[in-house]
Fold this sequence. Notes:
The chain is of the alpha/beta class. The chain has helices at about 10-15, 20-25, 25-40, 80-85, 90-95, 95-110, 120-130, 140-145, 150-175, 190-205, 225-230, 245-250, 270-285, 305-320, and strands at about 45, 65, 70-75, 115-120, 175-180, 215, 235, 255-260, 290-295.
Amino acid sequence: MRQAGRYLAEYRNLRERWGFLELCKNPQAAAEVTLQPVERLGVDAAILFADILLVLEPLGVGLEFTKGDGPHIQRPVRSAPDVARLPAVAVDDAVGFVFETVGRARKALADRVPLIGFAGAPFTLASYLIEGGPSRDFLRTKRFMRAEREAWHALLERLAGITTAYLNGQIAAGAQAVQLFDSWVGTLSPADYREFVLPHSRAVITRLSPEVPVIHFGVGTATLLSSMKEAGGDVIGLDWRVELGSTWERLGHDVAVQGNLDPALLLSSTDDIRRAAKAILDGAARRPGHIFNLGHGVHQETPVENVRTLVEIVHELSAR
Ligand code: CP3
């Protein structure tokens, strides 16, 4: 999950001097941010500091990150001609700065912990392009899917190609695992997931360099998990709305799982955090193939000490 961010004072300090995009585009600073949570929290892996939306900027849609409101697309994709007009993107040139961050972060980590790269899945990227920003009901996206079926599939094919190149570039630069974020796909019915999304996510995952594990994650995906497994991934990410043990059983122990503490628990007492972490570890029952994680990113209001405490608790309870 996102583990850098505004809940970390050292990140806020950097952000006072730099815009978010500016920070992402400066490999030295971005590598520094990548290491902040490792040093501060003692986590077992570093997460590349970048964003899933960086690959949309070269499409010329006017990507910006506005203070407080998050990402905004100035010229959203709203019609078949809009899709046809999107320019070809040479990912290696357009986001070469991300690959350079990977190299620098690996060097700075010096194999203390592995580095996880990531990208947005075609559906989640398309939802930003079409909605123009965050959305609750994804009505424009869902209308487009059906009203412009052909353009929808053409758009997702384009995005699948871009995401594949983005992830393979990170792997070539040294990422030791990659996570595919389909953060908002939980808004879809299982039937719509299978028709409008699954083939495109699968097209990404099957074309990734085979040497690193792939984590496939979304939020609110309880009814989609078996289809997401079919789309691919060595690890399926679970959010906190499902119980880890029984969900893993249902998915099959031939796939690894990641998750799934409610990030809101980090705003509670140490006792509550400990109880919730223990319940998840009990659910995993010391099987190989469980990555302890939050079910989604760290909230901005989170006290840093609580995240540190969680890391210590998980290390203590899962020590062999
Ligand atoms: O630990 C890390 O280094 C995190 C790296 C990371 C970022 N974005 C940096 C970031 C990761 C893994 C992402 C992924 C991402 N970006 C996702 C998928 C993960 C998820 O949470 O579901 C999504 C949907 C995005 C798009 C995005 N970027 C949104 C919706 C926002 C605004 C939300 C917010 O918290 O402000 C961003 C901005 C963003 N990306 C921030 C960070 C640290 C906060 C920007 C700031 O400093 O103001």
